[in-house]
Structures are given as C-alpha cells and as structure tokens.
Amino acid sequence: MNYEQLQRLGWKRFFDAQLTASEREDFQLVRVCAHHGGQLLVRGEADEFAIPLALAQTVADVAVGDWLVVDANTSRVIRALQRSSLISRVAAGLKVRTQHIAANIDTILIVMSCNEDFNLSRTERYLALVLQSGATPVVVLTKADLVEDRWSLIREVEQLHVGLVVEAMDARDPAQAGQLTSWCGPGQTVALVGSSGVGKSTIANSLGTQTQEVGEIRTHDGKGRHTTTWRSLHLLDSGGVLIDNPGMRELKLPGCDDGMAEVFGDVLEISGRCRFHDCRHQGDAGCAFPAAIAAGEIDERRFQSFVKLDAEQQHYDRTLQERRQRDRQFGRMYKATIADKDRRRRE
Questions:
Q1: What is the DSSP letter of 146?
Q2: In a domain, 65, yes or no
Q3: pLDDT beyond 90 at 69
Q4: Is 78 helix (H, G, I), strand (E, B) or coil?
Q5: Hey, CA dihedral for 209, 2, 45, 62, is it positive or negative?
Q6: For the whole model, what pTM was predicted?
Q7: How many folded domains does the chain comprise?
C-alpha cells in the first residue's frame, strides 16, 4: 500500500489498525467521494472510479468519507472500516429515519453569515450535532464585511460553548479564508455545514477546490443562492481533504443526548433544581427556570432553544421506539404465519 497517497485522502493509524494481513496484501482501500444514485464515486491510491451499488451490498448506509475495502479485480466492496466520526440528521419528510451526512471528519466548519442568517439557536443545533458526531466544531462567520461590529457577534457565538473557536471573514478574500488552513493540513478531513447561501462554496474555492459554482448575493435579503447540490469530497492544496455539503433547509437532530449535554450543560444544571424530575419547564409547579431567568443566570432565548431541542429529542426517541415495536410485532406475526403454514402442510 502507498501510505503517502492514502494519507493524502485522510488515512490515519485509526484505520490502519483495523486491517487484517490479507486485506493489506490482497485488496484495495478507497474512500467514498460522492454518492450518485446507483453508484458510489470513490478514490483510491491511484485514481478515482465508480462502483455500482450492486457491488456494495455488504455495506449499509454508505456515507461520503467512508473507507472501504474493495476487491481490485471486480470492484466488489468487501467491507467498510469503522468510522472515527459520523455526522447524521433526521431525514426531511414525515417518515422518521436517520440520514448520514458525512463520515470520518476531524473538524466541522459550521458556516453562518453575519447578516440576516445570523442565528444563535440554529448554531446551538449544529453544535449539538457536531459534538455528538465526535468531530471538533469551528464556527465560521461569513460576510463580516457587511456588518459594522463583527466582534460583538463573535463574542455572542463564543459564549455558546466553552473553548469554541470562532472565525469571522469575508470568504471571498483568499487571505481571510486562509485563516482556516490550520485545520486543513495533511491527513486532516474537514467538512462544511450550514444553511443555503451562507458562503460554503466560496470557502471551499478559497481553500483550493476551485470546483464549486458560486451564486451572487441577493440584494433584497442579503442571502447567496444555493449552489452545492450533493455531498462531495475534494483534495486541498494544503494537503487536507474537504467534504462540501448542500445547504440544509431543515436540520432535525437524531439521538443526540451527549451533544445536547455538552452544549447545554448550564441549562441542565438549572433543570436539576426543579422540584420534579419530569418537569416539562412550561410553567410547571416548582420549575427552576423562571427564577434563573429573572436572576440573569440564563437568557430567555437560550432557555427556549433548549426546550425546543429537548422536545424534538423526546419525540424522536418515542417515534423510534414505536417503530421498533411495530417491527417486532410484524416479525412475530410473520413467524407465526410461516409456522401456521408449515403446520397445515404437515397435516
């Protein structure tokens, strides 16, 4: 194996330790670059090629960024390596199911613009998602040239999580976007997430992809046009790998208890003072939040953000449990039907 070429794709000791001797000798290692309908676009040591999904049936829920062990002769996928991180969301629509966004990411750049898109509650949502994934979050505030006081916005975001790094810039200026290259060194994988039109494709181009179409900013609302339409993996001039993602109009969190606890540790501490452990924090007797808000321990916006996300988590958990129960009931019914048919056949 050419480890220099693999490192160029984001290879690490974490993945190398998973390989067997025969896999090192007899098979090829590739990383998923994109997922287009009936095929996976992957990149190996030498080149980029497509694998039909029919040859990847051994792997469920493949995500951009996954590492696959492949038979070089047939392109058949043998297995996927264990992920170091995975960012997922609840897929849009009425049916509750988890959609994988990207895998094996070291740093996730949460992109938000300084104008009308600036939203602390949405940033908390992204932070919970990223921290749950196992990656490191960095918030990037774009269109900083459109506001008079970028520093006050930076301070507001920094207060959302201890030690959170926040960068503000005009993403169209390569020199300013260069602030992000410290997270894009050799062997490092970064991903861009954020709403449509906040400048993710502009950042990707400034970091060296030079492949992303960029939309003009609309004058009536200060938003850029949505340009990226699918997830894709790009090699950067700095030696790192970047995964670009389409803007997400809807971001519902899947099971995200650890991420929520990290983002809202201060809120959870206050909730522990409530008289009843099942307090809904909606005017319940003995709820600790009214006094905490009045005393300035927590502001109303952050409290409401927590309540909304917590309610979503509870709904997701209930829906998932109900679906699993239905699946179990269907499984029992199916087995009973087969057993009844076998019994009748024997009679």
A1: G
A2: yes
A3: yes
A4: strand
A5: negative
A6: 0.80
A7: 3
